[in-house]
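Here comes my example:
=====
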Amino acid sequence: MRKRGGEFVYSATDLVGYLECEYLTRLDRALAAGLLNPPLEDDPVLERIAKRGELHERRFLGTLRENGACVTEIEFDESLSTEGRLRAGRDATIAAMRAGAEVIYQAVLYDGRRLGFADFLRRVEEPSNLGLWGYEVWDTKLARSPKASAVLQLCFYSDLVAGIQGTQPQNMYLALGGFAREEARFRVADYSAYFRLVAGSFERFLEDGSDLPPKSTPDPVAHCEVCRWSVNCRRRWRESDDLALVANLDTRHRLRLRQSGITTRTGLARLADAQLSEIEDIGRHSLTRARDQAEIQVRGDRKGEVISERIGPPAGRDGGLLEDHGLLMLPEPTPDDLFVDFEGDPFFESSEFDGIEYLFGALEAGAADDLKFHAFWSIERGTVTTAAERRAFEEFIDLLMGRLEKNPDLHVYHYSPYEPAAVRRLAGRHNTREEEVDRLLRGRVFVDLYRAVRQGIRASVESYSIKKLEPLYGFDRKVDLREAGQSLVEFETWLELDNEEAGRERESLRQAIQDYNRDDCISTLRLRDFLERERSKLRDELGRELPRPAAPRPEETGDSEQQQGVNRVVDALLANLPTNTAEMDSDQRATWLLAQLLNWHRREDKSFWWEYFRLRDELDDAERIIDSSTLGGLSPAGSWPDPRPRSRSTIYAFSYPAQEHAIELDTSPHDPATGKAAGSVVSVDDRRRQIQIRRGSSRPAPRPNSLIPFDHVNPGPKPERLRQLARWTQERGIQASGPNRAGRDLLRRVPPRLGNKPGQPLHLPGQDPAEVARQLALGLDESYLAIQGPPGSGKSTTGAEIIVDLVESGLRVGVTANSHKVYGELMAKVAAAAEKRGRRLRMGQRSPDQSITYADRLETGDAVKALLGGAYDVIGGTTWLWAREELIDCIDVLVIDEAGQMSLADALAASACARNLVLLGDPQQLNQPLKGVHPPGAERSAMGHILDGDRVISPEMGVFLDGTWRLHPRICCFTSEVFYEGQLRSRPDREKWLLEGAGPLSGAGIRLVPVRHAGNSNKSAEEARELSRIVGSLLASGPRCRDPSGSMRPITDEDVLIITPYNAQVAQIEDAMPGARVGTVDKFQGQEAPVSIYSMATSSPADAPRGMEFLYSLNRLNVATSRAQCLTAVIANPDLVQVRCRTPRQMRLANAMARFFELAELPPDGSVGRESDKPDVDRNGPS
C-alpha cells in the first residue's frame, strides 16, 4: 500500500491482508501515511521463494514462445519517477490490448487507485470495447495447487482488465508449479461477487480516517503466526494485559467478558466464585476454566517462568475417581512405544482430493542417545502424488502393526486429535489398510497427550501448543523453524527446486523439514515422560494407586474369510488397470470405481464405530456440551420419573443447557458412562431444553450426564449385491451385455440407450423437458434415465406421470429412496396422477406408517411374495428391500427418488432388481449424508456421479427440468445464476406473485435484512427479535398474497417459513415467536410457501461452530432460499460475507452468499438496517 497525492494506492496483496486481519490493514495504512515505522523483515525463505517464482514465470514465458506465441513485453523506463513508470506501463499495456497483441507479458494494470502487475494477458476471441477480441488473465504461481489468495489476485486483475475492455473476462488462469506444471482455469463469475464485496468493504475501510495511527487493541487471528506486524501486536497485548493473552479463550468469550466489564487478564484471574454465574452466554464450567487459566498465567509472569499445576480427576458416578480422564488416561509405558507427528497441508486442492499429508514421522522410544526415527515422505519424481501419499501411509501403518505384533501392549502417542483423524481419512481415501486402522482405533492404541494435558494439568502458557509447553520439561529443539506454518513454506520451496539446478539446497531444505518433524516426535516423548512424573506426584498426593485405562485388546489382524474374498475381487478388478487414474479410459475408470465401492458400506460402518468410540471414550461431559452431535449437561427435570402409571415403561425427563446436538425423536441414544442405550427418546424440546426418555419399567432408572447418538444401521444385502456385480464384471467386463446392464451403464456414465446416436442431445430447444422425459422413459432398453429437477420444477409430478405411463404400458415398477417417507410421498402422487386418468393402480408399500391409504401396507416378507407373484403394479421399498437376492431382475423399472441424496453404492446395489432405472433428483439441493471418507468418486451420490461435478446435467446424459412453477423471476434469477449456470427459468405468470402488506416483508423478490451482532455462534437473539418484529409487522397488517392466476388470499403465519442452520436458533426463534413455522434446512426440503426467511445466526465466519463448509453450504443456501414462491429473505450479520477463504472452493461458497447480498434489496420501508450495512456494489456486477 502506498499513498500518493492524498489517495491510497493498493494492490491485491493488501486485499488479502485485509481479509486476514483488519488491524493489519490499519497498520499498513498508518505506514503508508508515514505515521509508523516499518516492521523489521528479514526472511531468507521468502527471498528464495521470490527468486524461484521469477524463474517459474520465465520458464512459462519460454514455453509460450516455444509454442509459437507472439509475446509483447511491457518494459519500464528506469529514468522516470515511480508514478511516471506506472503510468507509462499502463499506457503501453492498454495500447497493446487495443492493437490485439496475442500475449502481453508483465502487464501494468493501474487506474490511479488500484495497482496490479499481471504476469500475462492472453487474447481471446470474445467481443469487447477493444474490438472482436478481449483478454483474460494468466498468472504464474509456484504452488502445486491453487490458493485462495492467488484466485483473489486473479479477480483483482480481471476487474482491472474489465475496466479497460468494458466486459468482464469469462475465465482466468493459473500456471502452477510442481512437477506436473498444471494450468488451472477459473470461471470469473464463480468468484467475482465475493471479490467485489471484499473490495468494496476494503475501500470503505481505507476511507475511514479514524484510529490513525492505531490506538485500539486487536484480537489474535490465525495470521498472527506469520504476520510481519505480530511483534507490535504482542507488545500491545502485554502493555494492556489484554484478554487475548489467556490461553484457550475464544473470541466469543472474550467479547462477553468485555461486555461484562472484564477487559484484562488480571481482572479475569480475580473473578470471584460468586460471579461465575453472572456472565451471559458463558457456562459456569467454561468460565471457571478460563478464570483458573488466567490466574496461573498471572502467577507465572510474576515468577518469570513457565509453571504448572495438576488438575485432580473428578469423581465418577460411583463416587470414586473418574477413570480414563486427565493424567489417569495414561497407559503403562513400554519400551516399544512410538511417538508420531504428521506434516500436512490441509488446504491443498487437486482434481482428486483436498488436503495432503506429505510427511509421516515416527520415533521409537529408547535411550536419549539411541532414538530411532522413521520418516515416510509422500513424494515421487519431485512432487506429491496420490500414489506417493498412499505408499507412505501404508509404510507408516505397516511399521505400527509390525511393532504391535511383537508387543500388543505398546501405544502410539501424539499431540492433538489430528493424527488418528488423518489415519481414518487416509484409510478411506486410498481404500487401504482399513482392517489395520480399525484394529488400532478399536484397541485404543493411539494416545492423545493433548487430551491428557487439557484435562490433567494447567500451565502458565498463552497457548497449549506443544512448543509452548517445552520449558516445563526442558526440551531444546535442534531445528528452529518459527512455527509449524514455516514447515509448509519450506516444503513448498523444496518442491520447486530442480535437482539439476539446486540439488544441495534441495536436500538441505528436505533435511530441515525432517529434523523439525523429528523434534516434534522427541518433544512428544519428553512430554509423555513429564506427564508420567506428574501422575506419580498425583498418586502421592492422593495416597492411593491410580488405575490405568483398561484398553480393549486389539483383535487379530487377519481379515474375515468373506473380506479376504472381497480383497481378491478388488485385486482382480485392478490387476490390468493403469496405476494412475488419469491414464484410464472411461470403462477402466468405471471398473476402478467399482473396486472402490466394494468396501463402501464397510467404510461407513467402520466410521460410525470410530466416531461412536470417540464420543464415548475421548470426551468428558463438559466437552459433550460443546460437541455438535452429543447432548451434555443433563440433570433430572420435573417429576422424575413421570408419575403417570404405565404397564411396561417409565418416562424420565432431563433438562440441559442450550447447545447443538443430533439427538432425535424415536432414537435410542447411548449413555457414554455405560456404553448402552439410555432408553427411547419420546420428546426433544430445544426451546424448553428438555428431553424425555422412555425406558422399560423393569430396568433401573437411567442417570446419564450426557447422551451420544446411536444410529447404526446394518447394510443388509447391499454389500453382497455389489460383490456379485463385481465378480460378474471381473469375469466378463463392465460393458458386456447381461445382468444389471442398467446399473453398469450408470457406473460407466454412458448416455442412455434409447435408439439415438450416442452423444446426441436427448431433447431439443423448445421441447417441454417433462414431456420428453415421459417419452424417453418408455423407450429405455436395459439402461437408465436421469432427470434433474431444480426447486419447484415438478420433479415429483413428472416422476409420478412417468410411473403411471410405465404401468399403462404393461410394465411393473418399483419405487425407492433413502427413507419410507420420501418414496411414500412420490407414491401418493402416483396414486393421484392415476386417479386423474380414471385409473386405480395396484400399489403396495413397505412402510412403518400405518396411516397410508394410497397403497397396501406390506411387511418385508409380504412385499417379496407380492413381487414374485406379480400382485402389484407398483411397489415401494427402501434399497434394503430391492437389494435382496430373490428380487434380482423381478421388475421392469426401478424409480429412484431423491437420487441426489442416495449414494452411488446403494443405487447400484438396488439396481439388480430391474432391467431399467429412472433417477429423479438434484445434487444442487441437499446431498447424501456420509459418515466415512471414500476414494475419489466413491463418495458421490448416484445423480452426482452422472453430473460429474457439473451443476446441470448435460443434454446427452439426461433431462434438465428447466422451468420452475414455484419461484418468482427475481428469486429465480439468483437461483439460476448461482446454482444452475443460468439455465433455470420461471414458468409463465410467476411474475404475478406479490405480497401486499405493511412492513419490510412486502412486494416480491429477494431481501437482505442486515442485523449487526457479535460473538454469536449457533444462535442469535438479535436476529430472533428482528424476525419477530418484521413478521409480526407483516401479519398485523392483514396481508394478502396474489398468486400466478391473479387470485388474492390472506396470509397467515403458516405461509411464512423460517429456516436456520442450527437447532439452537430454532429454539431461540420459537422463544421469540411461539407458533412460528420454523426449522432447520433439512426439515423443509420439498416444501414451499409464499415467504421464506433464512436466519444465519452466526456473527462471523470465525464463530461458525461447524465450520465454513456447513454455514456457507451451497446446497443449504439453495434449499433455504428456494422454498419461497413470492419473497425470500436472508437475515444475517453483513460481516458474514467478509470471510477469510483459504481455498478456491471456500471462495465459491462465499461467492454464493455474496451474490445474494448483491442482488437483494433492503426492505422497502427502510425500517431495517442502514445502507452502510449493505456493501455498496453494482447489483448486477460488471457487464
In short: Residues 554-558, 1166-1172, 1175-1183 have pLDDT under 50 and may be disordered. The radius of gyration is 31 Å.
